[in-house]
Design brief:
By secondary structure, this protein is an alpha/beta fold. It has 16 helices and 17 strands. The chain is globular, with a radius of gyration of 27 Å.
Length: 441
């Protein structure tokens, strides 16, 4: 079981020497309890304390980085079962599947889709993560050919699926040093695959007949000094949900350390429904056939929503933004720095084809209504933003259009800032009609 901060504190020397980088031993204990520090940072711990703390404070689910360079992605290192308890840190990689029996043209097209497809939402680029190559031919030469084609760009993380060690070795000669994921590892090939892991530093995907068999396989890999592991829980939707839930619970409680690894899911038969299930239920790498664009976009948006910190809204940098090419006589709209609010309003303003100014004030990422209720959006915040971003230097007038939900602030804003206030619509979708009918512009 994970130790609490006070339990950890009892094992520390209580010198408050600051040599660990923290001001006090209690601060260091709190960091260890959150999995954000290493016991070795304390120079005065005895070996027994290091052993106890090392087992208790390391992440309950192993952190693994897949691929090299700018497209590499990290999975694992999770600490909670429910997202609202804290947050999920590392979103699952969505990996498109190809067969080594596909034509060269088809393989290149899938690699191109993974490399180039991008959905930009609330200012964030949502990307696919890699390519999985499956050895359907049973030929080492044909498998390595497909891997070589995908590897030509040198940037896409790879998942190599071939149970035959001889076939797998041919592919690893090409890409083994680029941190691919390889599997499936079974009791029949575990010795050879562990040798690959030690030689190339690859991550192994373990496939057992059941959970006890999977735990045994995990322990055998650990006994052979291999620690970068993933658990293949692929199966029917019902079975996957049951096993993913159970292994997550046992890993987080540290009751079964053999399950303390990221989850691999093969959705090659189920497609989008499998991808959605994997995103919702703890998968770290999801292999799927290429999806249609609407399906891909839906999966990427769902992943972004689930893996956004619920306690820390996505924020836009406060400032004065241009919509089009505004001049000194153009309108000035005001809103908060909650990114969804900003990008929604930006879209509707751009649709009017009228240039204007957009003043973004800092409300710590809260929406307009929430910020008003919490006091994060008030007349003084707005007055300070007008001064900080030198709005008066950019326009000849002193008129500010505020969101409809901020209407209770209008009089106080005028009194404190000296600017005239016009209350705009509550819904950004009404911006165009508001400009034409209310402002007569």
């Amino acid at each position: 079981m994970a130790l609490k901060a006070l339990d950890i504190y009892k094992l520390l020397p209580k010198k408050n020497c600051k040599e660990c980088g923290d001001q006090t031993c209690l601060t260091f204990a709190m960091k260890l309890a959150q999995g954000k520090g290493e016991p070795d940072a304390c120079p005065y711990l005895d070996d027994n304390a290091k052993a106890v703390l090392g087992a208790s404070t390391r992440p309950p689910i192993q952190k693994i980085t897949i691929g090299m360079g700018s497209r590499a992605f990290t999975v694992g290192e999770e600490f909670v079962f429910y997202r609202h308890e804290k947050t999920y840190y590392h979103q699952p990689g969505i990996v498109y599947l190809i067969s080594d029996m596909d034509t060269e043209e088809s393989i290149r097209e899938v690699a191109r889709q993974v490399r180039e497809n991008c959905l930009t939402r609330i200012g964030i680029d949502l990307l696919l993560n890699g390519v999985a190559v499956r050895a359907d031919s049973g030929s080492g030469e044909q498998f390595s050919r497909a891997v070589r084609i995908v590897s030509e760009g040198g940037d896409l993380p790879l998942v190599l699926i071939a149970p035959d060690p001889a076939v797998m070795e041919k592919a690893l000669e090409i890409c083994g040093n680029y941190a691919p994921v390889i599997g499936p590892v079974t009791p029949d090939n575990v010795t050879e695959f562990c040798e690959f892991a030690r030689k190339y530093g690859v991550t192994l995907v373990l496939k057992g007949d059941d959970l006890p068999g999977l735990a045994t396989l995990s322990e055998k890999c650990l006994s052979q000094k291999v620690q970068n592991l993933m658990l293949d829980l692929s199966g029917s939707s019902g079975r996957y949900v049951r096993e993913a839930t159970l292994t997550r619970q046992l890993a987080l409680s540290r009751e079964v350390t053999a399950f303390g690894y990221p989850v691999f899911m093969d959705a090659s038969e189920s497609g989008l429904s499998g991808v959605v299930t994997g995103i919702a239920k703890f998968a770290s790498v999801i292999v799927t056939p290429p999806l249609q664009k609407p399906e891909m976009d839906a999966a990427l948006v769902m992943r972004q929503n689930i893996y956004t910190d619920p306690q820390k809204p996505i924020q836009i940098t406060p400032g004065l933004y241009r919509i089009g090419t505004p001049g000194k006589d153009d309108l000035v709209f005001l809103t908060v720095n909650f990114s969804l609010t900003y990008f929604t309003l930006q879209g509707y303003l751009e649709a009017t084809r009228r240039s204007c100014w957009l003043l973004i004030v800092d409300t710590e990422g809260m929406s307009v209504l929430t910020a008003v209720a919490a006091g994060k959006l008030n007349e003084f915040v707005i007055k300070d933003a007008i001064t900080l971003f030198k709005l008066a230097d950019e326009v000849n007038h002193k008129t500010l259009i505020i969101p409809g939900y901020a209407s209770p602030l209008s009089g106080r804003i005028e009194e404190v800032s000296g600017w005239n206030v016009i209350v705009g619509p509550r819904d950004a979708a009404e911006i165009a009609s508001f400009i034409e009918e209310e402002l007569k512009v």
